[in-house]
Design brief:
The protein is of the alpha+beta class and 612 residues long. The chain has 11 helices and 32 strands. The longest helix is centred in the middle third of the chain and has 18 residues, at 398-415. The chain binds (2S,3S,4S,5R)-3,4,5-trihydroxy-6-oxo-oxane-2-carboxylic acid. (2S,3S,4S,5R)-3,4,5-trihydroxy-6-oxo-oxane-2-carboxylic acid binds next to loops.
Length: 612
């Protein structure tokens, strides 16, 4: 069990938020053993006093910010530091809790405040925080110095996994040469990727809220549970308001069911003229002790909807939902995986322009800010954990599995209340035909279902249907295939037969609905050939269209979705099969359309009209 609910930091009449985004001092520890920062305790003094520093923007990956190739490809500890003035009233009011929160930092992080360690965290895509109230009160006149050391090294027990390989042949490699091997196809961007914040709550505060929604006829049902920290008893007032601010239901107990008459359901984009309808659940806490009164207010957006899976269908609010959408990455020029509002809003505009109704967070949890937009716009999400590249048999061991379970704890804790999230994906393309995969996925999926009994669970497979060992445990079969690309390259004519067989085999064996969770082809924008050849825009078009013909036959039966690989071109490690990254985007990395974007657009709007 995790410590604390870690609700998304929101301002309210009782809570303040201070963003620490901007320029931080930065140094990569390039010492031979990559450990000088700890040996010399860089966190004890200002970073600039222990050696040279450069300016580094937060949030952003550090890799593409400078002209230094060793920093782009750096493996090991990097150090970030900045000073901040904490508002005097936060310090003087003993009834205020001050929390330092990092939206995400890749991969392993240690945080110090004024030279004292306050927390550490494993995992590059989920938030972590530490209460620092007492620390900052110790020396109220001084600015507060925040040091964050981040290490991007991946091992067999990290998620995603990787290995460090030392090259000891001195006739071929320089002294100390080593490489980071990875088993996934995107650049291992690193640094502080999401906002760093200070926020306050009263000493007695709303620590967590869990909502589960349902409806009967016209009545919405919001089952809720509020956890309070800091006091044995507190008075609660829970109010559910509609978009116009009218109270539609209220209660006083820490848990219960709110009934909403004439409910406005949360619907996916294009399925309803008013998609993404959100109520606001205001939790108002009052706690009285001998000396003082504490009041806390937290407002959670709530979408009322249900999700169900049958043998052949995916149901949202009991209506069949067909996923026509994309796989994405958090990836763009210069900032790498750093959260960037112009990019986020542009991507949503492109998604809506396409007529896409969904995406999968391939291959790691995306920023909470993105999921909040999905909630508001009705974009349906398959929420994937960073379990990508589980290929080595040693990554199925106990240490790996234990960590994977914790990552699911953290993911479900963070994303449980998003109506847009309709399914968990616990992994992408693991070696699921290996013998230990059966126990691994059985345990992992059972665990995830115990954390959240309201959502289906899947993982994405590219294994053979006859040998896959995890499929018995999933609710929806998600299959990736690259016919006439990685197999039979150039032979578009194999697609109908191979894709039909894929669907029939999987459905025949498991009688579960299927999503084509990836398909696609690289295309260099502006490269043309007719008849089509691989890497041209024409080939990408032709390949997609052959897939679509088969989807159209099977979607009336048990195929419940198609997610193109990929929304946009993205950066990868350097390799002979990658030309400055993966080019399977239907948009370029700069978000300009290739020819395929227009094919998809036509198709998605047609599907929306047929199924919506
Ligand atoms: C896959 C992976 C994805 C890759 C893609 C490709 O199966 O899931 O991460 O980028 O294929 O283009 O090779």
């Amino acid at each position: 069990p995790l410590d604390g609910g870690m609700l998304f930091p929101r301002e309210s009449s009782s809570r303040e938020v201070k963003e620490l985004n901007g320029l931080w001092d930065f140094r990569a520890d390039g010492s031979p053993n990559r450990n000088e920062g700890f040996e010399k305790a860089w966190y004890k003094r200002r970073l600039a006093e222990t050696g040279p520093v450069i300016e580094m923007p937060v949030p952003a990956s550090y890799n593409d910010i400078t002209q230094d190739p060793t920093l782009r490809d750096f493996i090991g500890w990097v150090w970030y530091e900045r000073e901040v003035f904490v508002p005097a009233r936060w310090i003087s009011d003993e009834g205020t809790r001050v929390v330092l929160r990092v939206g995400s930092a890749h991969y392993y992080s240690i945080v110090w405040v004024n030279g004292e360690k306050v927390t550490e965290h494993e995992g590059g895509h989920l938030p972590f925080e530490a209460e620092i109230s007492s620390l900052i009160r110790r020396d109220p006149m001084k600015p507060c110095r925040i040091t964050i050391a981040v290490n991007n090294t991946l091992t067999l027990e990290t998620l995603p996994p990787g290995t460090i390989q030392y090259m000891n042949d001195r006739t071929r490699y320089p002294d100390g040469f080593f490489v980071q091997n990875i088993y996934f196809d995107f650049f291992n961007y690193a640094g502080i990727h999401r906002p760093v914040l200070l926020y306050t709550t009263p000493k007695v505060y709303v620590d967590d809220i869990i909502v589960e929604t349902n409806f009967m006829d016209n009545t919405g049902l919001v089952r809720y549970k509020v956890s309070v920290q800091g006091a044995a008893t507190a008075t609660l007032k829970v109010t559910l308001m509609d978009k116009d601010g009218h109270c539609v239901a209220s209660a006083n107990a820490p848990s219960g069911v709110l009934k909403v008459v004439d409910v406005k359901l949360w619907w996916p984009y294009l399925m309803h003229e008013n998609p993404g309808y959100l109520y606001s659940m205001e939790v108002h806490l009052i706690a009285v002790s001998e000396s003082s009164t504490y009041e806390d207010v937290y407002t959670l957006p709530v979408g009322i909807r249900t999700v169900n899976v049958t043998k052949t269908q995916f149901l949202v609010n009991n209506k069949p939902f067909y996923f026509h959408g994309v796989n994405k990455h958090e990836d763009s020029d210069i900032r790498g995986k750093g959260l960037d509002w112009p990019l986020i809003v542009k991507d949503f505009n492109l998604i809506k322009w396409l007529g896409a109704n969904s995406f999968r967070t391939s291959h790691y949890p995306y920023a909470e800010e993105i999921l909040q937009m999905c909630d508001r716009h009705g974009i349906v999400v398959i929420d994937e954990c960073p379990g990508v590249g589980i290929k080595d048999i040693r990554s199925f061991g106990n240490a790996s599995l234990s960590h994977h379970l914790v990552v699911m704890d953290e993911l479900v804790r963070r994303d449980k209340n998003h109506p847009s999230v309709v399914m968990w994906s616990v992994a992408n393309e693991p070696a699921s035909e290996m013998p230990p995969a059966e126990f691994y996925f059985k345990t992992l999926i059972k665990h995830t279902k115990a954390l959240d009994h309201t959502r289906p669970v899947t993982y994405i497979t590219d294994s053979n249907y006859a040998r896959d060992k995890g499929a018995p445990f999933v609710d929806v079969v998600c299959v990736n295939s690259y016919f006439s690309w990685y197999h039979d390259p150039g032979h578009l004519e194999v697609i109908p037969i191979q894709l039909n067989a894929q669907f029939e085999n999987w459905y025949g064996k498991y009688k579960k609905p299927i999503i084509q969770s990836e398909y696609g082809a690289d295309a260099l924008p502006g490269l043309h050939m007719d008849p089509p050849m691989m890497f041209t825009e024409e080939y990408q078009n032709a390949l997609l269209q052959s897939y679509h013909d088969v989807f159209d036959q099977k979607r009336k039966q048990y195929v419940i979705g198609e997610l193109i690989w990929n929304f946009a071109d993205f950066m990868t490690a350097q390799a002979i099969h990658r030309v400055v990254g993966n080019k399977k985007g239907i948009f370029t990395r700069q978000r300009q359309p290739k020819a395929a974007a227009f094919i998809l657009r036509k198709r998605y709007w047609r599907l929306a009209n047929e199924t919506g």
